Amino acid sequence: MKGRKIYFALLLAWLVPGLGHFFVRRHLHGLFYFAAIGALYGAGMIIAQGTAVNYTLHEYYFYCQFWAGPVTLVIEALRGNESIYLGENISVMAHQTGVVYAATAGILNLIAICELYRRNAQPDAPGPADTMRVGQIPESADA
Known about the structure:
By secondary structure, this protein is mostly helical. The protein has one domain. Helix content is 62%, strand content 0%. The chain contains 7 helices and no strands. Helix 1 (4-15) runs antiparallel to helix 6, helix 3 runs antiparallel to helix 6 and helix 4 packs across helix 6. It is elongated.
């Protein structure tokens, strides 16, 4: 895939994790990324009771969460300016755990996007899955 199609696939991969992989017909990878990233992000939101995304309190985590897709921007826009009373409404540990889960989902999607681009730029180069295959170790010329 050349030209603008790869950039469209990268945009799709950011809009919905895994969708870019579906676009380039790597369905198993797309399904894995959709499920893994969606589960991580959803678990983070559930654990933090909806407080995981907060640019004001967690600016750097928000930058990581941004890579999970536009859902982060929507949640931040809907959150409003009301403050969170940690300890009264939700425990600090639950809130922080949810923040980290959502940020991890964003970083995983960024890795998936980079992997999608790398596969396009160097289709014959071995990827992470290729290096995991067990095969005969070639003998070196030195030995």
